[in-house]
């Protein structure tokens, strides 16, 4: 909880694609932030909420560990942490927010023929989403495929000879195309999620009031 401060804490990405759309949502909710984004916290003026500004990758663990009451994070990051068993027993509740949409895709060199998941059998797949990739491979019954964890430049892994395929976030496909790769499968469709709770007492009241504002913004978009 909100120990000591009496203010709800919500973790959001400090800087990046998700941050841009998150700050836009808060603005549309009629909320303004007091501090510069250089600090760890920004205060919401209109509600008792402190915004914790962090790397998106840290948000699921901060919320699951109770350091933050709420968080806004991509489903890709949240589900990878969950599938990897890193959230422990306190897996937070989830509400889809409808923005920061992207796909997690398996891609292959253009010259490879691909018709079905079994074609990936025995391949080494470069990814920063090993848990989501391995879960999908298992669900599809792909035999002998393994993941190679890379934290960037996945799209060059096949040319480097360190992997046969890639599993990464795709938006337009331009990066894949430029590296001689094509999408074989979409394994996860992601959007931003509001995560956190269940909360009690005053913290729950504030979180409910925030959710009402978010729902208002969502309705006005539909
Ligand atoms: P950080 O410094 O916080 O770790 P990052 O480099 O991991 O930042 P960004 O590139 O800002 O992250 O992307 C954050 C999230 O935005 C992604 O995890 C994903 O949920 C979402 N997203 C939406 N569209 C895209 C896209 N086209 N490419 C990558 N991520 C996207
Ligand atoms: Zn990140």
From TrEMBL:
Feedback inhibited by histidine. Pathway: Amino-acid biosynthesis; L-histidine biosynthesis; L-histidine from 5-phospho-alpha-D-ribose 1-diphosphate: step 1/9. The keyword Lipoprotein does not apply. One of its GO terms (biological process) is L-histidine biosynthetic process. GO terms for molecular function: ATP binding; ATP phosphoribosyltransferase activity; magnesium ion binding. The keyword Kinase does not apply. It comes from the Bacteria. Keywords: Amino-acid biosynthesis, ATP-binding, Cytoplasm, Glycosyltransferase, Histidine biosynthesis, Magnesium, Metal-binding, Nucleotide-binding, Transferase. It is found in: Cytoplasm. It catalyses: 1-(5-phospho-beta-D-ribosyl)-ATP + diphosphate = 5-phospho-alpha-D-ribose 1-diphosphate + ATP. GO terms for cellular component: cytoplasm. Its EC number is 2.4.2.17. Its main location: cytoplasm. Its cofactor is Mg(2+). Residues 55-213 form the ATP phosphoribosyltransferase catalytic domain. Catalyzes the condensation of ATP and 5-phosphoribose 1-diphosphate to form N'-(5'-phosphoribosyl)-ATP (PR-ATP). Has a crucial role in the pathway because the rate of histidine biosynthesis seems to be controlled primarily by regulation of HisG enzymatic activity. Belongs to the ATP phosphoribosyltransferase family. Long subfamily. This is ATP phosphoribosyltransferase.
